[in-house]
């Protein structure tokens, strides 16, 4: 299998303040097609910065990023934006639905951006929302939805263009346990259909859903290992090691 | 697939959703811009109408472009001249004298049928048109009626050349573009029915025939009038075109243009502020959504374009609406096709550019939002500002200290608050400055070159007699002999005006604003326009030619010069050659304080047995009362914009503040103290904004008016700042109103239950 996403010696140093603050210090990471990678670490370990850089939301200080076999870290902000339309889906902790738009518009927007006809975008949205059990909420405003529902809409939006990689930044960080379970079940389902996923979390139970667990501490990878399926003990041990 | 098309589709979806979510605000923005544009168009048209009334009168009366006066009825061929579309008349016209209340005024009585004609149709503004059942009825031209104080129903006596007297009754008062206004244009004009004219003046030899020609192209008037001269030869008494009529009606004063341009600028800044506020507040409120859009694949440039399209479309809609209503409104008030197209186009184009620029800044700011959503607002620096430390040192209550700290720790809302108030305050100050400049015209006309309020020409008397009569009048303080001559400047095809007035020993008090008054023969004052035209400076020597003889003068000073684009050279009468200076052409009369020019004029006319020609000087401010209405309206609009800016800024500030407020409450501040904290924070910024705005306005207003004056040839030196009392009042009212407005969100915030964990 080939690497969908690859980071080589990736470094991010924030130099806005009086002292430069290194957030990511030389990360090497390869994500295979169809893989589900969980990135774990305590607050401030650089895991959000890492995933933002991988999706082009933040610029790297040095190092390389490769997406679908092409080097992308040298792209301009605009070129990144165009690339994201088709290759990257994002899910954030606070859902980040566009507040003014209906659920339907939120899900159709990325499809329209990718150049799909309005008719086809609607059909895609209908099937996605139906799959996520939100078919009847299409005309609702995001504010009328519960947190779990909003995150499911955000997931539908991220998946609208069948991206090469789905980047999820603490997707369950703001949800109660029942909604967490729902969202995780959905992530598991899309993963089974072959979707490559990189998910940042600090919750071990959430991380245990993934195939592979990358632990980050002070901006460096301290552990990278496969999770053996059906043996949750392994994940527990990794957490205990922290 | 094209990325352009797909972005447009997605962008349209987003704009539609955003507009739907804030219908009320969008409608308000459109209406505000529309209101400003409509007000500007109405103001410009009204002012234009006041300074150049000919156009609308000509349009209303379907006027004639060329007027010819002949001894006998002119042949029909004049109507067949190329370019003539229709003919008014010929009408028989007889010279008479109107005697009314001891005054005698020259008038031309013109015979028109009871069916008002299609071309050059007098438009009755009061009363009715002539009626065959009332033969002794007359309709009087409006400016003539105003001068004679005639109203419908009143009667007056006309004296024919034979000396016979007839009494006529005013049936109506009508507007006409056939000739200029009385008394600048004499004789006055009144219409009677043909049988009545035959009764008043039965002798055909003592009357003349008046014919108006309406042309397909007004530019052909000169050619047509030459054809008329050639065709009629000595039949023709005189001929004039619409240009002479327009020139006679025009108020030749560049000050109006100056003020008008300044007003346009104020209005456009108001529109720009209204939009910058609406768009800026909106963009700052939705930065998070914009970040989300970017994370989905909108580029920064596309987000900027999106915002520009949304807010720009609202602005353009407002401008279109305003242009249509302003145009329709003035057409309804002033009559059809009287709106000057150029100023309206300038307003529409100028406002469009200005508001798009105003929208551009927030749009650019929105496009620069980093694509990472959820970056929490940077917490304010923990340390107290110097001002807050000072507040603590002088033992102010804690709420005030915290408020003082808040005022300056959050830079963006602080800037928005202060700036959003400073700009309207500045514009209000400029508006007040225009007001006081107008007041100054009225109270000190001598400072704009109108020291004399009456001009006397000898008329039938000789010059010395006229000077004696004028000097004898108790209302006259000083009599300055004067002569206007045209002089050729070296290298200039056209001539400039040389005004010789007063002498170097008793000079006319020209308003000298630079250099000094002339003190010797051979010294002169120049207007700004003349300095620019000849490319000379004060201290330079110029050589002109007056009627063949040279006139060499040294320019020793610059005077405020409202006439003839400032292209006037003022000298003492003793600087001119005797052949040009003796006898003086006219006398300029400076009156004693409190003397009424109208009464002095009547006395002079009576003392000279109606032989003198006495003219009143028109003060530009007299025709400018409409500008005061516009100033008040603009100040109200600007005040509303300032308060709206303040509300937006404090709402933004409070949104970032919600967490702090919860902490303050948790620390034990009462709601009242929280409110005091917020109002102190806003209040300080309000005071800063208002003070900066007022100071900037005061320092700019004279400069702006003078700059306008300079470019229009009048020259710097007419601008006046508002009085200290006016400014103090304005600042106090502005601060008070702002604090009252700041109280609204502060009260709400102080009472709201804010959870400590906002996220």
Automatic annotation (TrEMBL), chain A:
One Gene Ontology term of the molecular function aspect: ATP binding
SUPFAM superfamilies (alphabetical): P-loop containing nucleoside triphosphate hydrolases
Keywords: ATP-binding, Nucleotide-binding, Transport
Record SMART domains: AAA (SM00382)
InterPro entries with a match to the protein in the record: AAA+_ATPase (IPR003593), ABC_transporter-like_ATP-bd (IPR003439), ABC_transporter-like_CS (IPR017871), ABC_transpr_LolD-like (IPR015854), MacB-like_ATP-bd (IPR017911), P-loop_NTPase (IPR027417)
UniProt key word NADP: no
Gene Ontology cellular component annotations, sorted alphabetically: membrane protein complex; plasma membrane
Keyword ATP-binding belongs to the record: yes
Alphabetized CDD domains for the sequence: ABC_MJ0796_LolCDE_FtsE
Domain of life: Bacteria
Domain ABC transporter: 5-241
Pfam families hit by this protein: ABC_tran
PANTHER family on file: IMPORT ATP-BINDING PROTEIN
The name this protein goes by in its record: ABC transporter ATP-binding protein
Lineage: Bacteria, Bacillati, Actinomycetota, Actinomycetes, Streptosporangiales
């Amino acid at each position: 299998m080939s690497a969908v996403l690859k980071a080589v010696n990736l470094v991010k140093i924030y130099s806005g303040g009086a002292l430069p603050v290194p957030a990511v210090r030389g990360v090497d990471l390869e994500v295979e097609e169809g893989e589900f990678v969980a990135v774990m670490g305590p607050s401030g370990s650089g895991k959000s910065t890492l995933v933002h850089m991988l999706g082009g939301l933040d610029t790297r200080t040095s190092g390389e990023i490769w997406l679908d076999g092409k080097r992308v870290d040298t792209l301009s902000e605009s070129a990144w934006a165009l690339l994201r339309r088709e290759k990257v889906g994002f899910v954030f902790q606070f859902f980040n639905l566009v507040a003014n738009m209906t659920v339907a518009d939120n899900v159709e927007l990325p499809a329209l951006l990718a150049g799909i006809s309005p008719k086809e975008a609607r059909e895609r949205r209908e099937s996605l929302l139906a799959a996520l059990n939100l078919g009847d909420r299409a005309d609702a405003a995001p504010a009328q939805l519960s947190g779990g529902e909003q995150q499911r809409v955000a997931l539908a939006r991220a998946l609208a263009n069948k991206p090469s990689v789905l980047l999820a930044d603490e997707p369950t960080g703001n949800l109660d346990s029942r909604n967490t379970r729902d969202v995780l079940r959905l992530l598991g389902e899309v993963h089974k259909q072959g979707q490559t996923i990189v998910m940042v979390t600090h919750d071990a139970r959430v991380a245990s859903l993934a195939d592979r667990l990358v632990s980050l501490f002070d901006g460096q990878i301290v552990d990278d290992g496969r999770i053996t399926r059906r043996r949750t003990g392994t994940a527990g041990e990794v957490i205990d090691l922290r | 697939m094209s990325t352009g098309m797909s972005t447009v589709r997605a962008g349209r979806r987003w704009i539609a959703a955003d507009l739907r979510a804030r219908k009320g605000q969008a409608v308000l923005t459109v209406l505000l811009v529309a209101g400003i544009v409509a007000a500007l168009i109405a103001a410009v048209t009204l002012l234009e109408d006041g300074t150049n009334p000919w156009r609308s009168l000509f349009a209303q009366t379907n006027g004639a472009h060329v007027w010819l006066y002949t001894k006998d009825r002119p042949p029909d061929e004049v109507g067949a001249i190329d370019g003539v579309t229709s003919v008014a008349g010929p009408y028989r016209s007889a010279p008479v004298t109107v005697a009314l209340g001891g005054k005698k005024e020259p008038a031309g009585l013109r015979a028109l049928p009871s069916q008002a004609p299609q071309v050059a149709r007098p438009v009755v503004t009061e009363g009715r048109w002539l009626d065959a059942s009332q033969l002794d009825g007359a309709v009087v031209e409006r400016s003539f009626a105003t001068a004679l104080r005639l109203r419908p129903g009143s009667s007056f006596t006309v004296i024919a050349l034979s000396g016979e007297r007839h009494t006529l009754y005013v049936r109506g008062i009508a507007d006409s573009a056939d000739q200029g206004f009385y008394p600048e244009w004499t004789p006055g004009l009144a219409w009677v029915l043909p049988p009545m004219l035959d009764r008043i003046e039965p002798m055909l030899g003592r009357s003349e025939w008046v014919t108006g020609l309406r042309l397909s192209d007004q530019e052909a008037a000169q050619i047509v009038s030459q054809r008329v001269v050639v065709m009629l030869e000595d039949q023709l008494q005189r001929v004039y075109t619409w240009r002479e009529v327009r020139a006679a009606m025009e108020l030749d004063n560049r000050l109006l243009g100056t003020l008008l341009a300044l007003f346009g600028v104020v209005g456009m800044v108001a529109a720009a502020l209204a939009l910058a506020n609406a768009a800026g507040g909106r963009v700052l409120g939705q930065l998070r959504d914009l970040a989300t859009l970017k994370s989905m694949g909108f580029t920064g440039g596309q987000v900027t374009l999106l915002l520009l399209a949304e807010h720009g479309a609202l602005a353009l809609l407002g401008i279109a609406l305003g242009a249509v209503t302003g145009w329709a409104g003035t057409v309804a008030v002033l009559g059809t096709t009287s709106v000057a197209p150029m100023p309206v186009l300038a307003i529409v184009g100028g406002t469009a550019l200005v508001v798009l620029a105003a929208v551009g800044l927030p749009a650019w700011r929105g496009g620069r939002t980093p694509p990472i959503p959820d970056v929490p607002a940077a917490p304010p620096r923990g340390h107290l500002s110097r001002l807050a430390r000072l507040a603590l040192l002088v033992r102010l209550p804690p709420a005030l200290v915290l408020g003082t700290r808040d005022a300056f720790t959050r830079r963006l809302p602080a800037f928005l608050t202060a700036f959003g108030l400073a700009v309207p305050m500045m514009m209000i100050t400029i508006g007040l400055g225009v007001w006081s400049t107008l007041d100054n015209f009225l109270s000190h006309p001598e400072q704009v070159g109108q020291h004399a309020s009456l001009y006397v020409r000898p008329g039938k008397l000789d010059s010395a007699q006229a000077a004696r009569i004028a000097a004898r009048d108790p209302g006259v303080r000083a009599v300055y002999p004067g002569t206007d001559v045209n002089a050729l400047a070296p290298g200039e095809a056209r001539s400039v005006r040389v005004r010789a007035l007063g002498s170097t020993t008793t000079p006319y008090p020209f308003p000298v604003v630079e250099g000094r008054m002339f003190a010797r023969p051979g010294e002169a004052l120049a207007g700004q326009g003349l300095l620019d035209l000849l490319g000379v400076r004060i201290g330079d020597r110029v050589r002109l030619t007056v009627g063949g003889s040279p006139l060499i003068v040294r320019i020793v000073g610059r005077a405020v010069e409202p006439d003839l684009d400032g292209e006037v050279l003022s000298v003492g009468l003793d600087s001119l050659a005797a052949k040009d200076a003796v006898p003086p052409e006219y006398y300029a009369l400076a009156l004693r304080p409190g003397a009424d020019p109208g009464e002095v004029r009547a006395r002079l006319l009576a003392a000279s047995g109606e032989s003198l020609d006495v003219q009143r000087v028109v003060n530009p401010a007299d025709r400018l009362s409409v500008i005061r209405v516009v100033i008040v309206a603009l100040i109200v609009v600007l005040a509303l914009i300032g308060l709206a800016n303040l509300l937006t800024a404090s709402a933004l500030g409070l949104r970032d503040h919600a967490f702090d407020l919860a902490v303050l409450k948790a620390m034990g501040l009462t709601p009242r103290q929280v409110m005091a904290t917020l109002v102190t924070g806003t209040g300080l910024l309000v005071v800063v904004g208002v003070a900066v705005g007022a100071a900037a306005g005061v320092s700019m207003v004279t400069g702006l008016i003078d700059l306008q004056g300079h470019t229009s040839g009048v020259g710097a030196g007419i601008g006046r700042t508002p009085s200290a009392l006016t400014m103090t009042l304005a600042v106090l009212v502005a601060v008070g109103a702002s604090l009252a407005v700041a109280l609204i969100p502060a009260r709400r915030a102080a009472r709201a239950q804010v959870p400590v964990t906002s996220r």
